[in-house]
Amino acid sequence: MAAADTPAIEVRVAQPADGPGLVRAIAAIDRETDYLGTPGERLAWTDRPAAMLAELQQSDDGVYLIATAGDDVVGYAGALVGQYRSTRGVLSIPHIGVRAVQRRHGIAGRLLTALEAWARARDVHRIDLTVDQDNAAARALYRKHGYGEEGCMREAASGPAGWHSYVAMARLLDDAPPPMAPVHATRRPRADSLTIRFRPVAPGDAAALRVWEVELLSAPPRLLKLPDEVAPPERFRDELTAVLGNAANFLVAAVVDVDGAERVAGLLSVSAKPGVRLRHDLAVIINVLASYRGLGIGRRLFEIGEDWARAREAHRLSTAVHAANPSGLGFAAAVGFAPEVVLRRYARFAEGDADLIGLAKFPSAG
Known about the structure:
By secondary structure, this protein is α+β, with helices and mostly antiparallel strands. The chain has helices spanning 19-32, 49-59, 107-120, 136-144, 206-217, 233-244, 297-311, 326-334; strands at residues 9-13, 62-69, 72-81, 90-98, 126-132, 148-159, 162-172, 196-200, 249-258, 261-272, 281-288, 316-322, 338-349, 352-361. The chain has two domains: 3-172, Aminopeptidase; 196-365, Aminopeptidase, CATH 3.40.630.30.
């Protein structure tokens, strides 16, 4: 084809009708690079791309931008905003790629510029992504577009050549307000004797877990989620059922008996990250109510979670705590997590912004 006949590249928001073409482009790009999905890997929405794109447009929870040459999708960038009010100003890019034949023509840069315009129109203050540590060309591209490096997630993904580390990068779009002051967790020493049991969570625990979560979020230190963001009872139950129905998730509750009824005092959540390359990295979340802190519940929950991870041959454990929660950071350090990344101004509260600290532990290291 002569140069004059080559279709011009158009960058635009993907519409539902673009869904099948987007799926084909993602599959082709996965075959052409070592840095994205495993060839043949299916996305959660592979069978319903039009519906996924329509839902994104309706909710404004994110966007897929595509680069087209005539009728062909030759590049894409997918991004999602944070799910809580404190993180709604963060746009994360988990998915970006360009066909091999179209690389080095500025398409990825145009996708990033269009994403920034989309973000600014929605008062986003931070755009972030991760990039393979060995992908020098991509890191240079992101730096050119104003992204700064925020740390390295060690051996976060697997590949044919072994473990891959990822660099966290972000572009900040506004001036920083004063940082949120650190708030320590409260402890209320107990004089009564307690019997604490640890057991897997069951679907019938939905009501008790919802009560626990509202109480947890209503006490300091502030977490990313706010109390009024807890799902209504019916939706909470449905969401819990879905989580428990996925073998990649493991939930354990610490329960005590209060007036003849069980009360949830703490919760462990361990979940494998999605995708073939990331499945050996398990995300760990542990929280304990203020009235039951200092009793060793959190440490016991972690031991249970780490045993489960080792049985699954997990390579690493990940967690994250925002910088204004020194008690949470202290607990993570006490059970062996080490800081890896500092995600600047990740959470925005009325009291100011807070960095999110990403930490990791390798179970095989003890």
